[in-house]
Amino acid sequence: MDSIWENREKILQGIKNALVKNSYVESIAEERYKICAECLHIKTNCAPLIKECCGKCGCSLKFKTRSLDSSCPINKWPKINDSQ
């Protein structure tokens, strides 16, 4: 399992994309979230202000699904190399 510190650039990308909305990123985040919502590893109330997170990597789903450089730790969705 990667530590949050090792994933800081990906997390920051997800935070930026959550704050500065882009329709391309939002469509990808929506599809990714649909997959995560049905996953057995989804957790709720992970930390203050974080409603849902991945039980495998610990990342906030709000940010992880919006980070185009991130992928699902159990390979349910890939990273996207052509960030726009």
Estimate the global geometry from the Cα principal axes: globular
Rg (C-alpha, Å): 12 Å
Helix vs. strand class: alpha+beta
- Assembly of the depicted chains: single chain
Spatial sequence of strands, sheet with the most strands: 1-2
Chain-averaged pLDDT: 89
Order of helices and strands: HHEEH
Query: Total number of helical segments?
Result: 3
Q: What is the helix content?
A: 25-40%
Percentage of β-strand residues: 5-15%
Terminal CA distance: 28 Å
Q: What is the makeup of the main sheet?
A: 2 strands, antiparallel
Low-confidence spans: none
Number of E-state strands: 2
Could you name the key traits of this structure?
37% helix; single chain; 3 helices; two-stranded antiparallel ribbon; globular; 84 residues; alpha+beta
Structure, explained:
With 84 residues, this protein is of the alpha+beta class. It has a domain at 8-64. It is 37% helix and 13% strand. A two-stranded antiparallel ribbon has the order 1-2. The longest helix has 15 residues, at 23-37. It starts with 7 loop residues before the first helix and ends in a 20-residue tail after the last helix. 25% of the residues are buried. The mean pLDDT is 89.
